[in-house]
Input
Amino acid sequence: MSDLVNLQVNGVAYPVQIATDRNLSGVLRDELGLTGTKEGCDDCECGACMVLLDGQPVNSCSYLAVQAQGREITTVEGLADGDELHPLQRNILATGGVQCGFCTPGMLMSAEALLERNPDPTDEEIRIGLSGNLCRCTGYARILAAVKATAVELNGSGA
Output
């Protein structure tokens, strides 16, 4: 069975005819061509598929696309402002917080949600905010530094 679903992604409306059992990550990637959202485990374990749903981080691998109708979806592609990278994107590059890069989109989305609700997080709060995202390459120290640098840049703060 399929439904016509209207998805609001990165400020753009997308009417999509999809099967009602399709997960959001698959629809974003396959139907909308937004491949920044990664498919890692399909089991809510790695966080590579993290998107923001009404500003809250959600594992899109376990979220049905039909449930997202009427909600604002933000993917990693929605962080940048045209060709201008978001401060989180710039800082993760500047600190060397990217190695293989597979976890990076999910990390960025979780970090964005964290900074929106807590503009001046401590190291511990950053660790907790990113706890739903796994990275096998970086050891997290440089990702943590990128989030702290972004807090300072955006808010003139930093715990």
The two ends are 51 Å apart (CA to CA).
